[in-house]
Amino acid sequence: xxxxxxxxxxxxxxxxxxxxxxxxxxxxxxxxxxxxxxxxxxxxxxxxxxxxxxxxxxxxxxxxxxxxxxxxxxxxxxxxxxxxxxxxxxxxxxxxxxxxxxxxxxxxxxxxxxxxxxxxxxxxxxxxxxxxxxxxxxxxxxxxxxxxxxxxxxxxxxxxxxxxxxxxxxxxxxxxxxxxxxxxxxxxxxxxxxxxxxxxxxxxxxxxxxxxxxxxxxxxxxxxxxxxxxxxxxxxxxxxxxxxxxxxxxxxxxxxxxxxxxxxxxxxxxxxxxxxxxxxxxxxxxxxxxxxxxxxxxxxxxxxxxxxxxxxxxxxxxxxxxxxxxxxxxxxxxxxxxxxxxxxxxxxxxxxxxxxxxxxxxxxxxxxxxxxxxxxxxxxxxxxxxxxxxxxxxxxxxxxxxxxxxxxxxxxxxxxxxxxxxxxxxxxxxxxxxxxxxxxxxxxxxxxxxxxxxxxxxxxxxxxxxxxxxxxxxxxxxxxxxxxxxxx
Length: 488
What we know:
With about 500 residues, the chain is an alpha+beta fold. Helices cover about 60% and strands about 15% of the residues. The radius of gyration is 31 Å and the shape is flat. The model is unreliable at about 1-10 (pLDDT under 50).
């Protein structure tokens, strides 16, 4: 009887000891989740503000500078040829005023004095047209005309200065919001890492308590079940993270628009992985960027890097849309390198030795222009049943050892009828097989060359079957990504 009392007392003691840290970490996780959701909402709101308000406002402001110059030139020409009708036919002022009124009336833009600029422009246009019509009507220049010209010159310079300042204010707002989005994205990553670390510490602590205080078989079995429950919850969290990672992968719709046929073989080593592929159609609707990224590590650590890469991809597309960055694969790799090294402070003795290998392919279906740049990631090209390999640069993107001003080589790729292109991370060729063998580059190159004439769906099946056959019952060594395509 006394043994049973001790037994149940020990079980009750176990529940008490475990409940406090588990409840604490659950509350901590709930609070962190609330914070993360708020940060994500903040990122979304700032991104929408950039896309729907600030960037259109910058386009209108930049257009106003051009239209102001056009108005001045048209009025000057009309005055020189003495055509009053040409003065009256000028309508660019209406576009300028509409643009300014849109900016002034937009309460979401924190822009001061925009209404002053509108009034100054209206005043300048009135003076300019009256001056032009007066000179045309008099057929000669007088002293009053000289005074009017001087006043007109002063008004023009004032309006031009106002428009340039408005442009600068909008660009400053865009830079501020972009920096805030980047900072908030890093907060989300840091908060998630903190939760995983705290959860791991609590898990270790509870395991230590169980091991130290109880040797009874039933108690150990209860401990095993509790750990199994905690492990199941952790696995559910990681599986949920995999849904998030898969959600940021692009659909095949864009790739299908530009290709006759294609396949994507994406297989993380764990539930989540460090490989990611991105497919982006640019604003022209005739250009596409295909990025294959192999982040350092795999599992949770690799997955965090893919989130950072996705955030930078959004910035890159926005910069290309504004004309700040060229749609050049080499320039995009440089942008990734500088951004990762800056965000992770790798130039200041950081221990965050993080980066990626990868390849970027650009294609314009109107000009049939195709370019490629890679960081330790080859491009395989098959033309006329012959295989050519662009080995790319032997420098990574990011990492402490990579220079901040690292340059990457860009290659022109000739696209003919029947040209097949393949980009692959090193996960497939580095896969270990039976008897200390490896899949190897030779096997991969021979396989795609032998199968390049069959449909890409069948090619994917062949690569998958070959990979599984070599791997056998061994664990997958790394994340695997292979993309094959033929442009239209």
